[in-house]
């Protein structure tokens, strides 16, 4: 986390002191580093510079308009999974012609809007979806560019909830059925078959599953060629992991190296859909300790963030580092469960953490830039946290804190 570091005993985001930011904007607060987002994006772009490629940032990881805008300015494309995400990309100045549309349940209106916007490709996940895209395209007098997302049946060796490339998963078209579906797609006038796609899971910490999946997809491309179906682009999905604790995921350069050798002699444009590896370590969640609560069994540090702000620990048992903004030197560490105020035993951000704490201290939950704010909710009628972006020694509100009035605004009582 080089963009978040201690300077003179205080944790900073780039050159901004996080305790100052907490004072200025309140907590809980998501803080992102522009420089980190840019560095992480460029690492992918440079790693694949030897081939024709397009990095399509997976919007679901962090869809704040400012985040999308920072990446759009660098030339990023985007991987979207809903009409809402397309609207965000366009509002953030993203280029529709660099957008790929993934996801299992695309609706007619979403398909129509994406066709009108002129996206690069639909990543199609079932034969039924293919028929729907064909029908909508014909009704608009258009041809939809499509890839089939094939399911290569490869074990991504990650958490079962975020593993997507096994035959028992709901995603993609089984690779042994793909030829028939491709042949059908090629016969439909509303479709232009241009690509192949696969995404096998998230938070992968080894290149082996990616390489195995690529072998299977390349064999599929050769089979398709034998049947007269020419594939122009290969979308290798996202999924590259990050370090939350002691993982040693490949760097984007190592990831590229493991894959690019297999592509020699082919004229394929490579699309990639990284989300987490760009956003996770570009953000932290800043939170304040409200109370310390020692009991006979455990010590609890009750903080002002909770599972509604950051659900990864509760949902996946994910371990995310929790570090002090201003470490104490005059008190000893004790073992704490760091918990929120939500009425669920599953509401914790960290368990058994050794921390030297006083009430009122600020803590940073690390690696919170991806699948953090985007998965937050209003459970317990808690307004969602504000988001800010740091750019050197400047900081900008990129989403204001929700008020109680915001939460009530969409509801009404019976007459
Ligand atoms: N492409 C597709 C089709 C995806 O489904 C995903 C993530 C990505 C790209 C980006 O994957 P990434 O590079 O971020 O690993 N909420 C979970 C992660 C869910 C990932 C879903 N799909 C978590 O917090 O760990």
Automatic annotation (TrEMBL):
All residue ranges annotated as the Orn/DAP/Arg decarboxylase 2 N-terminal domain in the record: 35-280
Protein name: Diaminopimelate decarboxylase
Quaternary context: Homodimer.
Alphabetized GO MF terms: diaminopimelate decarboxylase activity; pyridoxal phosphate binding
Domain of life: Bacteria
GO biological process, one term: lysine biosynthetic process via diaminopimelate
Family: Belongs to the Orn/Lys/Arg decarboxylase class-II family. LysA subfamily.
Record Pfam families: Orn_Arg_deC_N, Orn_DAP_Arg_deC
Transmembrane intervals: none
Residue span, Orn/DAP/Arg decarboxylase 2 C-terminal domain: 30-369
PANTHER family referenced in this protein's UniProt entry, alphabetically: DIAMINOPIMELATE DECARBOXYLASE, GROUP IV DECARBOXYLASE
HAMAP family in the record: LysA
Keywords: Amino-acid biosynthesis, Decarboxylase, Lyase, Lysine biosynthesis, Pyridoxal phosphate
Binding residues for pyridoxal 5'-phosphate: 239, 273-276, 371
Annotated catalysed reactions: meso-2,6-diaminopimelate + H(+) = L-lysine + CO2
Residues annotated to bind substrate: 276, 312, 316, 344, 371
Species of the source: Agitococcus lubricus
InterPro entries: Ala_racemase/Decarboxylase_C (IPR009006), DAP_deCOOHase_LysA (IPR002986), De-COase2_C (IPR022643), De-COase2_N (IPR022644), De-COase2_pyr-phos_BS (IPR022653), Orn/DAP/Arg_de-COase (IPR000183), PLP-binding_barrel (IPR029066)
Modified residues (N6-(pyridoxal phosphate)lysine): 60
Gene that encodes the chain: lysA
EC identifiers of the protein: 4.1.1.20
The protein's annotated pathway: Amino-acid biosynthesis; L-lysine biosynthesis via DAP pathway; L-lysine from DL-2,6-diaminopimelate: step 1/1
Active site: 343
Known cofactor(s): pyridoxal 5'-phosphate
Function of the protein: Specifically catalyzes the decarboxylation of meso-diaminopimelate (meso-DAP) to L-lysine.
């Amino acid at each position: 986390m080089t963009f978040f570091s201690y300077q003179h005993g205080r944790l900073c985001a780039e050159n901004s002191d996080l305790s100052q930011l907490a004072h200025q904007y309140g907590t809980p607060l998501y803080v992102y580093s522009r420089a980190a987002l840019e560095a992480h994006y460029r690492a992918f772009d440079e790693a694949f510079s030897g081939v024709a490629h397009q990095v399509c940032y997976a919007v679901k990881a962090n869809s704040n308009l400012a985040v999308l805008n920072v990446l759009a300015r660098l030339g990023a494309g985007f991987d979207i999974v809903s009409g809402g995400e397309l609207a965000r990309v366009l509002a953030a100045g993203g280029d529709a012609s660099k957008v790929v549309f993934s996801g299992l349940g695309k609706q007619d209106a979403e398909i129509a809007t994406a066709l009108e916007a002129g996206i690069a490709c639909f990543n199609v996940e079932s034969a039924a979806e293919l028929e729907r895209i064909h029908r909508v395209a014909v009704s608009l007098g258009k041809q939809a560019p499509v890839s089939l997302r094939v399911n290569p049946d490869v074990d991504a060796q990650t958490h079962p909830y975020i593993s997507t490339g096994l035959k028992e998963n709901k995603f993609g078209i089984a690779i042994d059925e793909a030829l028939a579906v491709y042949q059908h797609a090629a016969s439909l006038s509303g479709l232009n078959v241009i690509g192949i796609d696969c995404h096998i899971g998230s938070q992968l910490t080894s290149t082996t599953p990616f390489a195995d999946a690529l072998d299977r997809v390349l064999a599929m491309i050769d089979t398709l060629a034998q049947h007269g179906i020419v594939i122009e682009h290969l979308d290798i999905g996202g999924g590259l992991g990050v370090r939350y604790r002691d993982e040693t995921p490949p760097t984007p350069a190592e990831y590229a190296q493991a894959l690019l050798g297999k592509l020699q002699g082919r004229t394929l444009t490579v699309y990639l859909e990284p989300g987490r590896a760009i956003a996770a370590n570009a953000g932290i969640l800043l939170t304040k300790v409200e109370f310390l609560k020692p009991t006979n069994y455990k010590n609890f540090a009750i903080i002002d963030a909770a599972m509604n702000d950051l659900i990864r620990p509760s949902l996946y048992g994910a371990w995310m580092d929790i570090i002090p903004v201003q470490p104490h030197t005059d008190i000893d560490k004790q073992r704490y469960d760091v918990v929120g105020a939500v009425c669920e035993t599953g509401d914790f951000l960290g368990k058994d953490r050794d921390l030297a704490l006083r009430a009122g201290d600020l803590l940073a939950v690390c690696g919170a830039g991806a699948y953090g704010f985007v998965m937050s909710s209003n459970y317990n009628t808690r307004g969602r946290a504000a988001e800010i972006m740091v750019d050197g020694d400047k900081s900008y509100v990129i989403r204001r804190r929700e008020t109680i009035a915001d939460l009530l605004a969409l509801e009404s009582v019976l007459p």
